[in-house]
Amino acid sequence: MGTTLADEYFLKAWSNYPFCAEDALEPLNYALSFDEEHAPSLCLMGRLQMEILKNFKTGKHYFECALLADSDYVETYKYYSLLLIWLGDLTNAERILKMGENKPGFSKLVAITRRASILENSGKVKEAILLLKTGRNLSNCTKTFDFFKDELIRLERKIKKPTKKGRKKIQV
Predict the structure, then answer these.
(1) Which stretches in the chain have pLDDT values below 50?
(2) Which of 60, 73, 106, 162 has the fewest CB neighbours in a 10 Å radius?
(3) Tens digit of pLDDT for each residue in 30-68?
(4) Spatial distance between the Cα atoms of 26 and 29, rounded to a whole number of angstroms
(5) Distance between CA atoms of 100 and 79, rounded to whole angstroms?
(6) How many C-beta atoms lie closer than 10 Å to residue 171's C-beta?
């Protein structure tokens, strides 16, 4: 199976995203005009709607179309679950994550990151910390290790109680 025109236009769009969304939009529209069920293009359009335009309803629509077009395209699960977390739809975010985890190529570290966000947003910060420690231990590069380390520091600050020395009197 060769590269299609939709693939070529998707690659042009992807190379411009997110640095120049305007230059990504035209080839993305071309890709979808050549193949309206091109999952990578639908997913990227969902990201553009979600991340740049903040049009979450339209982004959700594109992600759903991408899943219908190709349920094996793992990037859709990654970004669709993030959108659902942003929208506070934690139950569906978890459902999408479970679906994605069953697909070859879906990153275990992405699943850990998303699941930790779900736990944090559910008020289960200690459980999120335990999960992030697992992610840190599974990290296979410095960038990923540092990401998990920084997230752990941030969440641990949330659960620490201030000491008497650390409290400052507020003068009115």
Answers:
(1) none
(2) 162
(3) 999 999 999 999 999 999 999 999 999 999 999 999 999
(4) 5
(5) 11
(6) 4
